[in-house]
Design brief:
The chain crosses the membrane at residues 301-319. [4Fe-4S] cluster 1 binds at residues 32, 35, 38, 222. [4Fe-4S] cluster 4 binds at residues 139, 159, 162, 165. GO terms for molecular function: 4 iron, 4 sulfur cluster binding; metal ion binding. Residues 23-53, 118-149, 150-179 form the 4Fe-4S ferredoxin-type domain. This protein folds into 2 domains: 10-288, Alpha-Beta Plaits; 290-320. It is globular, with a radius of gyration of 23 Å. The relative contact order is 0.20. With 321 residues, it is α+β, with helices and mostly antiparallel strands. It has 9 helices and 10 strands. A 4-stranded mixed beta sheet has the order 8-1-10-9. A two-stranded antiparallel sheet has the order 2-3.
Length: 321
């Protein structure tokens, strides 16, 4: 993973002193029941507006669709029909049905889907709080900053709404909140109809709660503890043990996403335990921050500039003779 300079620890890179342990999320999709309590808690705590009329999408029982400026936690309903199930089996993947949540201590039942026609997976998605965050790298105003907990937060009063961060995110998480007008932020009037209209918005991992010693609202309200919050290193260890248990139960497709510190974003603060390939959940299989190529680009530019200067010098000296 390329970077401009400095250590790979996010808080150390941001020059925080003292540096508390990096915090993060572990989202275990194997016990998510799709209740959307985390979505509601996130909206209520952060005063985020509703997405439309909250009607069903027509193609899904979901009613929000994806992460965005107004939805910082999104519970995806991955509905697999007959064709998707057949394709997965042809590839050799061992499909299992989530079934109903089990009480602690009971033996998990692992089997193919209950029917060849349909399978349902659920996952609560959120900002990844990348170790190497593209949104943070390209922000021209410093509105995005790295906190002492290793998370990435937008400062509403500093963001100028340029939108550079939107394409810089390899996960498509961050988005500008719209109020239905294309007018510049300074021409929107004194009292915009939508709070924080025109500026970038995303999950802050409830930074205002963390500084007070509280856990994020989504993790606090999750009834199955599908969303866990804590020290990032401890969560990774717990997640790996959980994957080993699932494999022992026959759920061999269980895997971690975001736990590899050598991937294209240096690992993520939000780690996910998935029951199928990342693409099934709408996640990129090999995320890469665009700014990772900057060091190599600078080197090539320097070599090109040196070559041009040398050629000019040779031409000048040759002309004088």
């Amino acid at each position: 993973m390329g970077q401009l300079s400095g250590p790979t620890d996010p808080a150390a890179d941001a020059r925080w002193s003292p540096q508390p342990p990096r915090k993060g999320f572990l989202t275990d999709t194997s016990i998510c029941i799709g209740c959307k309590a985390c979505e509601v808690a996130c909206k209520e705590w952060n005063h985020n507006p509703a997405d439309g009329e909250l009607e069903l999408l027509g193609s899904s029982y979901d009613n929000t669709g994806a992460l965005g400026a107004n939805t910082w936690r999104h519970v995806a309903f991955i509905e697999q029909g007959r064709d998707a199930i057949a394709q997965a089996r042809e590839s050799g993947r061992q499909l299992v049905s989530l079934g109903m949540p089990k009480m602690p201590g009971t033996e998990a039942v692992t089997a193919p889907p209950d029917t060849d026609q349909f399978r349902w997976l659920m996952a609560s998605d959120v900002c990844k709080h990348c170790t190497h965050a593209g949104c943070l790298d390209v922000c021209p105003t410093g509105a995005l900053f790295r906190t002492e907990f290793g998370t990435v937060v937008v400062q509403d009063d500093v963001c100028n709404g340029c939108g550079n961060c939107v394409p810089a995110c390899p996960f498509g998480v961050i988005e500008r909140r719209t109020d239905g007008t294309a007018a510049p932020k300074t021409a929107r009037g004194d009292a915009p109809a939508v709070r924080n209209a025109g500026i970038a918005q995303k999950c802050t991992m409830c930074y205002d709660r963390l500084v007070d010693g509280e856990i994020p609202a989504c993790a606090k309200t999750c009834p199955t503890e599908s969303i866990k919050f804590g020290d990032h290193a401890d969560l990774i260890d717990d997640a790996r043990r959980r994957v080993a248990r699932l494999h022992a139960q026959g759920r061999t497709e269980a895997r971690l996403y975001g736990a590899n510190e050598h991937d294209g974003v240096g690992g993520t603060g939000s780690v996910f335990l998935l029951l199928d390939e990342p693409e099934v959940y709408g996640l990129p299989p090999d995320p890469r921050v665009a700014t990772a190529d900057l060091p190599a680009m600078f080197k090539r530019s320097a070599l090109a500039a040196a070559g041009m200067l040398a050629a000019a010098a040779v031409a000048f000296l040759g002309g004088r003779r």
